[in-house]
Design goal:
- Four copies of one chain form a homotetramer.
- The radius of gyration of chain A is 23 Å and the shape is globular.
- In chain A, the strands form three sheets. In chain A, strands 9, 10, 11, 12, 13, 15, 16, 17, 18, 19 and 20 form an eleven-stranded antiparallel sheet that branches. Chain A has a six-stranded parallel sheet with strand order 4-3-2-5-6-7, sandwiched between helices. Chain A has a three-stranded antiparallel sheet with strand order 1-8-21.
- In chain A, strand 15 and strand 16 form a beta hairpin.
- The first copy, chain A, has two domains: 154 residues, Probable inorganic polyphosphate/atp-NAD kinase, domain 1 (Rossmann fold, 3-Layer(aba) Sandwich); 162 residues, Tumour Suppressor Smad4 (Sandwich).
- Chain A starts with a helix and ends in a 13-residue tail after the last helix.
- The first copy, chain A, has eleven helices and 21 strands.
- The longest helix of chain A has 16 residues.
- Chain A has 367 residues and is α+β, with helices and mostly antiparallel strands.
- Chains in contact: A-B, A-C, A-D, B-C, B-D, C-D.
- At the A-C interface, loops of A face loops of C.
- Strand 16 of chain A pairs parallel with strand 14 of chain B, so a sheet runs across the interface.
């Protein structure tokens, strides 16, 4: 019976969204905001605790190479404490993360949601499981209170962790090859995008590409007037966006900029692409939830009056010229976020906390 | 590698949302608005064409029993046309649909979106594939123009059809057993809902249950003041809803009442529950997209000042008294809608059409 | 110069919205929720203080007639306290308020925003200045903390008060006279509404009429499906409302139901009618701000499928049948709310408080 | 009676918003998009018709100085047609408009809404009455179809016109004087703004100032992250804006960018300032309607992480540095728009047209 198969896939899908793993821990990477002196102090504390190990374990700990000479970190002092420390204290660089992500069994972030986003940024392909610790109030992406780090990490290393695989998007900027217009006389960008093999030579060439955890935004950037771009889902034209811009968010990003643009809050297990216009000048473009199996393209028409700008997780901001487009699809490399509660329950917690939903909490059942 | 498995499930999920089937057609059910005389005429025309059959096929055709004596339908005249017709013209009733849904190989609806919803209503469990024909402009649920019915049906019967499995919800009204309060002294509804086996005897008993294709709405009904209800996802309290009501929609329903309540448009392949407040009196309750594997409950607190009303696809409207709740989950029986285009492309078409997105259509590629 | 005259009127308008008055106080009416025992206690305390008077003043105090026999109020005990009290303790009824509003020099409300609305309800024409005291947190309409009532009232009686004249609307239900259709063959409601003297005999007759401080709502009431009504501004058709309903709010009402329907927050000095659709099924009906010199009508077309219901400040709920309409215009009788700060500054305070805008208050200037 | 006075002011205010004037016409200015060749042709046609005059009138006509040598305009050919033309064909420049606005009895614009905005831009102080002609479909600001220009202008000159006085805002950029911090040690911008004479020397000095017809926007401009600014109404802190920006619109501007930001549609007679956040990161900042007698300030805190940018009617874009603010108030110089219908009825028309409200127009009464 077909409907049973559907049920089966639904269950499977749920299990994959939140999986239990037991790690054999040897190397741990620590990521923090190194310009924040207080955080360096906490990092030092954390490194020391990891160095000491429990039950004879001898972890290798990586901290950012900028800490090597930071007086607050005092690497030298740390190495003097115990002769074995020196060989087990390593320094990571962005390059190491990019080239050899398997060097780390897991990553600990110390800071706010921005630090977690930075972890995603460093690991554009495979990402080690990420423990996100916060020093103040928890956010949407920071799930553990640093006050209890010893207990949290001990338990995790011993019993394993539950990891939520957060969907990420890959965005590739497709640059229009100069002179393409000669080949394809009408200069219609949809023709060029979808003509596939029909057109020789090709009209576009891939440019910069980035993986995001929250969102890709195409907007007018510094242009004084609104941008007009074309939105495609797979090979279908969806709509012409006459707006300040458009936000294409993951479920994880649904609590960030996408929310400000009017999008819905979306549970991280939903395999979706959230598309929301930013200050649309047409009243009929409402936020859209599409399957993550689709490929979304946002194109600047060849005859557009202005260019547009694309940004990735609020970091890079790159200009799209007339005829260029950005192609967005689900990344093969999700972001494995260690959860503080099973079944993505901590997502609900973060929503309740941040939206002030908990103002009148109901008692839970005996258990 | 885990990420490959995730990719696999994503693909599988996509395929299941839109499947190709080849039917061995023997019995066809026709559904229309029998109070509309023009539609009865078209129904007659359709029945005649089906009776004649193609290539010697001899279908059994079911029309609504109220047509038996309708002069516009003229069953007698039809039966006189050909001796074999009499034995192959049957009459369906709501009871037959409910009890023996397998009597029909497929269903043809003739009318608007409301007629398609009615088909979903008649088949609360297994639903035969549904062809939805419209006489005027196409809607979100009506996908074929009746003008071309001969060609559409011939091709379908011969070559098979693509069917989109539309998610439906089951809503069960849970009535609080009188006297429960004595057992569970504090009368907290969350305690009662989630206490499970801990409480003997049980506090609630299942009442009416309905399957919906669009949405379940809990609102204040005829009450003059807003309702205050509690919203739960699985065993977690999400928020207290202080609003005119709440709309819990399927992706199919995202283009109906849910849109009016401020929800996003949601592609039918997304396995989601869309929760949107109706005129929320708190600014922080934003529309929510949850996985269809969750169980959602909306409860009227025992100490609420007013009751609430629940309605199913805009049809039934049933009062929820203090202490009652409605429990909503994905139905095991999806709604198989025959598609006019593969891969749910007709959903995009319906959006473009209805939102006036097509005002500036871009040319599509050669193919 | 014309532009100077415009400036002058702007200033005049501002001054009228917030005027200083000095009252000669003789009779004071007290209004509270008489089903709330705690409030009766506070009322007793307030009455006693007023009876004692300051500097020999001898006020007449009116309390609700239902308190006459309330043990918590203990009228007898009060009268025994001092021989003069008996002749100065009076009882008001809804009828007295309606017929002789000039009996009171001012009104004191004790309770929440609902109690202030009730004061507006009792005085459908002239309203005495209203002091609104709250026992808990202040609301949009309650402006004084009861804890400080002695000081507030002493100062007010001695120095005078600043009164904000809050715009109210009058809504009149216009009933279609049976048989009108014979006269005006096409039955078009716009024809009937605006034909004026051209049609003899008239097509509509005025029915119930109420004055509101917050809003008039026309909605589907207990009807299961959305209502379709016609909206007119003066003699112009604005739009056909396909929605759950429409909210027509005063600036005072902009913080109540109108906000839930998506309307803007509107300063009470603005002479405006705020029209907001409730769950509109068309995306292009956006909230509208019209001048209070316009007359707004909401009509149920003669051929509508369902009736509609109109409610006044959330109280009365009256059915509008096919052909009926409600006519809304600025009332000649504003609501004089005693302000806790001059220039309607307390409105900004109430917004800041309720919207949590004050979360990061900036320091104010020395003064 | 006070309430009668209120009524009187309300009526007066309504009359001033839409006044009848009879002009003694001698000099007419024509404004068009001089880069659009087709428009130059129409301009030529219009000039010729005005030159010929009716009933012996001899108008002086001003066209933009850039047309002097435009072949499509062919000034020489025009002057040869009739000897008197030469002396009556003049050329205007932006400088003339700015310095001697009384040179023109009225202005004719030929183009879209942008051309009308440009007229407002040219006349920063006194504005002559403006006739706005459109060649295609009418907009919110263009009210006359150029096809009928002869009839429209003849009637206007002979019978007089109705002019709607559209509210404009003046925005002044206030620059923080370097070294102010030394004086006012805490660097709190509210202290500095409102300290008035208390602080010597002053902390801010006025910079650029512009008058707008639509809106003033303060946003993040090219900055990649949201801006954080402080919003003040008169001397009260309203809220901290954590958003992409804030739009401060006139009622005229309520149909432009303000609408895209989520603001209400506001009738031009309403004396209001419309404040709407742009992609607010706090859910509780809802659009706000304030009286036009208030002074609104948007300030960049001294300790802000980024600057902000202010733009005027979408034209200038000027950076606000930390400590700077923009001060917005009603301009003494409204924009006199010649109306095609009395009582601002053409505003309702423009709304109906642009929002597709007219999809189901109701018949109007006999008249």
């Amino acid at each position: 019976e077909l409907s049973d198969m559907v049920l089966g896939v639904r269950e499977l899908s749920k299990h994959l969204a939140s999986i239990q793993i037991k790690m054999k821990v040897r190397a741990i990477m620590i990521l923090t905001k190194t310009y924040d002196r207080a955080l360096i102090g906490y990092t030092r504390k954390l490194v020391e605790w990891l160095m000491e190990g429990e039950k004879g374990s001898k972890y290798t700990v990586y901290v950012e190479d900028t800490l090597k000479d930071a007086p607050e970190f005092d690497a030298e002092g740390l190495e003097q404490k115990c002769p074995g420390y020196k060989s087990r204290l390593h320094y990571w660089s962005a390059e190491l993360c990019a080239k050899r992500p398997h060097s780390f069994d897991f990553v600990i972030t110390l800071g706010g949601d921005g630090t977690v986003l930075y972890a995603s940024w460093l690991f554009q392909k495979v990402v080690p499981p990420v423990f996100s610790f916060s020093l103040g109030s928890l956010g949407f992406l920071t799930k553990f209170d640093f006050c209890a780090f010893e207990e949290v990490l001990s338990t995790a290393i011993q019993d394993g962790v539950t990891v939520g695989l957060r969907l990420r998007f890959e965005g590739v900027i497709m640059r229009r090859i100069k002179g393409s217009k000669d080949i394809n006389t009408n200069g219609d960008i949809a023709d060029e995008i979808f003509s596939g093999a029909a057109l020789r030579p090709p009209t576009h060439t891939p440019g910069e590409a980035f993986v995001v955890l929250n969102e890709i935004v195409v907007d007018r950037g510094p242009n004084p007037t609104m941008s007009s771009t074309e939105l495609y889902g797979d090979d279908m034209h969806l709509t012409t966006i006459q707006a300040d811009g458009v936000c294409i968010a993951t479920p994880t990003g649904s609590t960030a900029y996408s929310l400000a643009a009017g999008g819905s809050l979306c549970h991280p297990e939903i395999p979706a692409i959230l598309i929301s216009p930013i200050c649309a000048h047409t009243l009929t473009f409402r936020p859209l939830v599409l399957p993550d199996s689709m490929v979304v393209r946002v194109a600047v028409p060849c005859d557009a009056r202005t260019t547009a700008w694309v940004s990735f997780d609020g970091r890079q901001r790159i200009e799209l010229n007339q005829g260029d487009y950005v192609m967005i699809s689900a990344s093969r490399f999700p972001f494995p976020a260690v959860q503080s509660k099973p079944d993505n329950k901590d997502w609900i917690d973060s929503i309740r906390r941040t939206m002030n939903w908990g103002s009148r909490p109901r008692q839970q059942a005996f258990s």
